[in-house]
């Protein structure tokens, strides 16, 4: 099952706000419906956002076929629906570059974005599994953060695809999924996907991660990214930085798995990235809260980045 696809002239998504309670499919017929789905995180995760952006342009190109000004406005709205994951703007721009050739050409490009993410997931799974066994030993116990499975990437996923591949090889001794406050992508979505794959796991509150590492219950950390900067800084779900600090203190490998579509060498470093703030209400009704949805993990805390084409050993001075 794909988390996002184009079906009979509309975008179909698995509504990630309803999981794990209900597996609900949403059909999105208009750009405002798509933008609402992106902003509510009904569709989320960097690679899936790239596909959503490309299909969003396909939708806009049909609806506004005779109104170029309205099409330009609609495309811009999709592109800026969320600011941090580079995949969204990138998917939009790829599809928008085909507008001059007509709506069918735009849709063909969107299909290409989708298909490339599917192939990329498979490549990352194999390469990442090899690397983790090399770094952490034969049957590692691994901690992951947020959700990086098929839900976030069309099919299979990035870091979660690596866990699946290790499990398939009989080379995975345990998984800790951090719950990922405030929207619980780990407790709700990662746990749901791991259960469907038959992978035993435990959910931990976010703040437990570094302590579990210190207590020797984890052999390494593997997670995804929303943007990888030219200098190797990694932007990912809030809580990634504290897990990286915990891994460094415990002397554990910290591995980021993300497709090339997430590598953005036009962004020099993490401080240059707009970090989405999702507002107070998501965190607590009882006080004013600060709610950055992502953080910046400096390159020197990252052991390696696995993409669909390469392994970048930041610990050996390599750069994206
Ligand atoms: O706010 P979200 O749920 O879209 O954030 C997602 C993440 O931070 C993921 O870790 C990242 O996109 C990698 S998904 C393969």
CATH architecture grouping of the largest domain:
3-Layer(aba) Sandwich
Poorly predicted parts: none
* Level-1 CATH class name of the largest domain: Alpha Beta
Class based on secondary structure composition and strand pairing? alpha/beta
Described by its quaternary structure, the protein is: single chain
Mean pLDDT: 98
Query: Helix proportion of residues, in percent?
Result: 25-40%
Strand content: 15-25%
Could you say how many structural domains there are in total? 2
- Within the largest sheet, what's the order of strands? 6-5-4-7-10-13-14
Mind summarizing the main beta sheet? 7 strands, mixed
Taking the alpha carbons of the first and last residues, their distance comes to: 32 Å
Bound molecules: 5-S-methyl-1-O-phosphono-5-thio-D-ribulose
Please state the overall shape, judged from the principal axes of the Cα atoms: globular
Question: Which short descriptors sum up this protein?
Answer:
320 residues; globular; seven-stranded mixed β-sheet; Four Helix Bundle (Hemerythrin (Met), subunit A); binds 5-S-methyl-1-O-phosphono-5-thio-D-ribulose; 10 helices; alpha/beta; 2 domains
Q: What does this molecule look like?
A:
Helix content is 40%, strand content 16%. It folds into two domains: 4-116, Four Helix Bundle (Hemerythrin (Met), subunit A) (Up-down Bundle), CATH 1.20.120.420; 125-316, Rossmann fold (3-Layer(aba) Sandwich), CATH 3.40.50.10470. The strands form three sheets. Strands 6-5-4-7-10-13-14 form a seven-stranded mixed β-sheet. A hairpin with a 2-residue loop joins strand 1 (4-7) and strand 2. The radius of gyration is 19 Å and the shape is globular. It is built from ten helices and 14 strands. The protein is an alpha/beta fold and 320 residues long. The site of 5-S-methyl-1-O-phosphono-5-thio-D-ribulose has 19 residues, from helix 2, helix 6 and strand 9. 5-S-methyl-1-O-phosphono-5-thio-D-ribulose binds at residues 41, 44-47, 85, 146, 148, 152-153, 157-158, 185, 224-226, 236-237, 293.
């Amino acid at each position: 099952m794909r988390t996002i696809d184009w079906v009979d002239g509309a975008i179909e998504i698995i509504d990630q706000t309803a999981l794990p309670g209900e597996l609900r499919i949403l059909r999105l017929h208009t750009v405002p419906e798509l933008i609402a789905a992106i902003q509510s995180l009904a569709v989320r995760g960097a690679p899936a956002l790239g596909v959503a952006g490309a299909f969003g342009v396909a939708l806009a190109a049909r609806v506004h076929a005779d109104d170029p000004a309205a099409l330009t406005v609609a495309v811009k709205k999709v592109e800026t629906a969320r600011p941090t994951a580079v995949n969204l703007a990138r998917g939009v721009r790829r599809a928008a570059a085909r507008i001059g050739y007509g709506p069918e050409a735009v849709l063909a490009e969107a299909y290409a974005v989708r298909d490339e993410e599917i192939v990329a997931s498979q490549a990352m799974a194999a390469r990442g599994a090899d690397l983790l066994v090399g770094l952490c030993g034969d049957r590692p116990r691994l901690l992951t953060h947020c959700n990086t499975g098929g839900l976030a990437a069309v099919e299979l996923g990035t870091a979660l695809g690596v866990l699946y591949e290790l499990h398939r090889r009989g080379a995975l001794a345990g998984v800790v999924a951090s719950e990922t406050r405030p929207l619980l992508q780990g407790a709700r979505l990662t746990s749901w996907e791991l259960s469907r794959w038959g992978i035993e796991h435990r959910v931990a509150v976010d703040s437990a991660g570094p302590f579990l590492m210190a207590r020797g219950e984890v052999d390494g950390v593997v997670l995804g990214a929303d943007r990888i900067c030219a200098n190797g800084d990694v932007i990912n779900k809030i809580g990634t930085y504290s897990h990286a600090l915990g891994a460094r203190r415990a002397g554990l490998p910290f591995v980021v798995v993300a497709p090339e579509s997430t590598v953005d060498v036009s962004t020099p470093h993490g401080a240059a990235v707009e970090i989405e703030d999702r507002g107070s209400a998501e965190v607590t009704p009882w006080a004013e809260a600060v709610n950055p949805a992502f953080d910046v993990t400096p390159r020197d805390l990252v052991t390696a980045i696995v993409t669909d084409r390469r392994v970048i050993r930041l610990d050996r001075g390599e750069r994206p």
